[in-house]
Amino acid sequence: AEGSGEFSIGNFGDDLLADGSTSTPASFNCLSGLKISGTVSYYMDSTAVIDSVMANLTGDATLTNMTLSTGYYEFTDLASGNYSVSASRARRSWMQEPSISAFDASYILRYYVNTLTLSEAQKIAADASGDGSISPFDASIVLRYLVGIDVLSTEIANWKFVVPPVTDWLVPVTARSYAPLSSDQADQNFDGILIGDVTGNFPGSVLAKAGNGNVVPGEMKSLTDNILELPVRIEGVSAYSAVGFELKIDKEQLKVENVTLEKESENVLLSFYEQNGTFRVAVASALQRKDTDLLRITFKNISKANMNDVKLQLTGYEIDANRVDAPQEWMVALQKQPEQFDLKPNYPNPFNSETVFEYQIPINSKVEMIICNVAGQKIKTLVNEKKQAGFYRTKWDGTNVAGGKVSSGLYFCRIQAGHFHKTIRVMLLK
Q1: What does the pLDDT look like over 197-213, one tens digit per residue?
Q2: 145: Cβ–Cβ under 8 A, 6 or more apart, which residues?
């Protein structure tokens, strides 16, 4: 019949075989007009459409089709044969994947310390190094990508398309095979995974949102003649595990020298980078942080000009999964060099890992700061050098001069600078 794709060869006359019998009619099937179709969607949200995805057909025919705006793809008018279908998407240019955030790095750290469970597909997204393991190294790659350090030799921001569901993240199925294709195949779906987006916060996803919290500056201090320090804190949230933000600075006036966390921890990763007046910083923690004081940025005044106020622009920030892209202007008041000697109360106090001491000297002085026990015996020297006038910070990690941990109890911190001396109480708990 016309269009049936089938035909038969009957007995046209008497076809005799070698033994004198007649031949039996032979029937052949030649299937054509077959179709393979499906949808490509994001692995954490089937409603999220991934643009510019290519569906690739290989085997007895080679074809490439771009998915529709709905994520749908199809290959039509295929003859029966052996085929394979996969999906692909080109990696975007640098820093073009806003769904990758410091929150993803915190997920990796939390998984590593066994406080969070990841699905098999999330594990694929977490392996930013592409080495088949999930570790703090992967979290550091995410942070370095965020601040603009070149890590494109790794898998970060690449796409992997898999056949759902993923049962083993180390050997996911990445193609659908038909050997042979003998009927129409619908719902031949793929899940797209953006390497680095462990939380599934892909643009267009219902998970993407802006919400609570704010990144705010403190009062900038002039530590020395040309060294400035700006504290940055978090407001509006009770706890967080990841923060990232970007500042625009006057590159003719300031240069970032260093960034330090207010509270150091072995469970926290910090990455920062400055280039051509754009400064980015990202912090991720394996545990939730409740301290509002986040970090301190040390700037060098390269203009040598006297400054009263410093203008910076916060172009955007993220706190966990909450993202804000509305620019804010920071007009930061500059606290001049101190007018008197002082040693501030340490924080935290009591402490169990390390504590911070802040002191100030109005004139160039020889400074000695020591830790003593209740018997007055010196346990450790924290500072013993000449200092320029300015504001300073130092830390004590609860160790003695030999590096051994001291026992819990009451200790004293004593400072002497010129004719000034002061002692404060320090409580170590374990």
Answers
A1: 999 888 745 444 455 78
A2: 95, 100, 128, 151, 156, 157, 196
Question: How much is the pTM?
Answer: 0.72
Walk across the sheet containing 378-387 and list its strands. 378-387, 365-372, 409-417, 420-428
3-class secondary structure, 259? strand
Largest CA-CA distance found in the chain, in angstroms, rounded: 129
Specify the DSSP class assigned to residue 92: P
Q: What is the residue whose two structure tokens read 């001049």?
A: 336
Question: Across-strand partners of 410?
Answer: 427
d(CA 340, CA 229): 19
- 418 backbone dihedrals φ, ψ, rounded to 5°: 65, -130
Instruction: List pLDDT tens digits, range 3-24.
Output: 334 433 344 344 444 555 555 4
DSSP code for 30: -
- Under DSSP, the state recorded for 22 is B
Q: Which two tokens stand for residue 332?
A: 């930061």
Residue 19 φ then ψ, to 5°? -90, 5
State pLDDT tens for residues 292-345.
Answer: 889 999 999 888 666 667 889 999 888 987 888 878 888 877 767 788 999 999
pLDDT value for 94: 59
